[in-house]
Design goal:
Protein name: Copper amine oxidase-like N-terminal domain-containing protein
Distance between the termini: 84 Å
Strand order of the largest sheet: 18-19-20-21-22-34-35-28-31
Helix content: 10-25%
Low-confidence stretches: 1-25
Keywords: Signal
Largest sheet: 9 strands, mixed
Organism: Aedoeadaptatus nemausensis
Number of strands: 35
InterPro entries: Cu_amine_oxidase-like_N, Mao_N_sf
Strand content: 35-45%
Shape: rod-shaped
């Protein structure tokens, strides 16, 4: 029993070293043997020590508590053991098996809103209870059964045999992930690089396949196809949340990132499972040429080409010409990337690609 109490005290001394600040840091919760307990007075931190409401803790643990108003003393009876405390005194007495010993507390018991508070160390040392402190969630734990609450923004990601945790954000209903953390977990890179106009743009690079996703904030771009930004192309006004800097960290839409990387995505609670979709996929194309001196767009189905995803890349493919003929006409480069006088946007709802005149 003595070894057990020494162990409990050691745990307490290691876990309950608090900065000497008042309870103004925020509310402190109390968890006892499997459930949260609330009373008239919450636990609080005073002069570097955690104070807990004595009667609430004692009665929850099944102890008898008696208050003597005349001499302002408190008696606690617990399975043949009696503990006597006096307000504004650090000295307490423990009587067990006919033997009485003196205990000196480092903080005096105090009264707050007619409730007695005692140092948590006293509970651990003399009640024989396991005591701990969850600093992150500011919770005093007495007994067993405590499981820290899950941060709703914290998710586990499974992808290519790796499993890692990310802190997500939600903006206007769009789930965003920290792109640099994702890259680091995957062993990829996320760094600025010059685009075709020599502008420095952040680029996510899949080091295994060489696939690149450029982050233009209003859209992610892979193989010259934009994922996001379609609202701006249609309505001349952006409304989609594709990328946002929060707290100095760059977050991107998981939905648009998965589409750009051609991933299957499954969200189940706090777990996100990503899987490469390497099946060759064909996307119909629709052209939106400028009409009425640039005042409006037309909308016609492409009759000579389509977009194909194959071998980790999106390519523009001809229906009635060979790739060599397409290249000679300047409609694509030698890699069959979509180029020319159009901007290409993936419509995630319709699963098609729309091409808009650049003007």
């Amino acid at each position: 029993m003595k070894k057990s109490r020494r162990y409990l005290l050691l745990i307490l001394l290691l876990a309950l070293v608090f900065p000497a600040k008042s309870s103004a840091q925020g509310s402190v919760q109390l968890f006892i043997n499997g459930r949260y307990i609330q009373g008239d007075v919450s636990p609080r931190i005073e002069n570097g020590r955690t104070m807990v409401p004595l009667r609430l803790v004692s009665e929850t643990l099944g102890y008898d508590v008696k208050w003597n108003k005349a001499d302002r003393s408190i008696q606690i009876v617990q399975a043949g053991r009696t503990m006597d405390l006096t307000l504004n005194s650090k000295v307490a007495y423990v009587t067990e098996k006919g033997s009485r010993r003196q205990v000196v507390m480092d903080v005096k018991p105090q009264i707050i809103n007619d409730r007695s508070l005692v140092p948590l160390r006293f509970i651990s040392e003399n009640f024989g209870e396991k005591v701990d402190w969850d600093r992150t969630n500011r919770t005093v734990i007495v007994g067993e059964g405590y499981v820290p609450p899950k941060d709703p923004n914290r998710v586990n990601v499974d992808y290519r045999g790796k499993s890692f945790e990310l802190i997500t954000k939600k903006v206007d209903g769009e789930l965003l992930i920290p792109i640099s953390d994702f890259a680091r977990a995957m062993g990829w890179t996320y760094a600025k690089a010059p685009n075709e106009y020599e502008e420095m743009v952040p680029v996510l690079t899949d080091t295994a396949t060489g696939k690149k996703v450029w982050n233009y904030e209003y859209a992610l771009m892979c193989d010259n196809i934009s994922f996001g930004g379609l609202d701006a192309a249609k309505n001349r006004q952006a409304s989609e949340v594709v990328s946002k800097t929060i707290g100095g960290k760059n977050f991107v839409s998981l939905r648009y990132l998965a589409a750009a990387l051609h991933l299957d995505m499954n969200l189940a609670g706090d777990r996100i499972v990503l899987k490469d979709n390497n099946e060759p996929t064909i996307y119909k194309m629709y052209y939106n040429p400028l009409l009425n001196d640039g005042e409006s767009y037309g909308y016609v189905a492409a009759k000579v080409n389509y977009i194909q995803y194959k071998n980790n890349h999106y390519k523009i493919m001809p229906m009635n010409k060979t790739p060599e003929q397409y290249i000679r006409q300047g409609l694509t480069n030698s890699e069959m990337d979509p180029i020319g006088m159009f901007n290409f946007y993936m419509d995630l709802q319709k699963n098609i690609v729309e091409a808009y005149s650049q003007g």
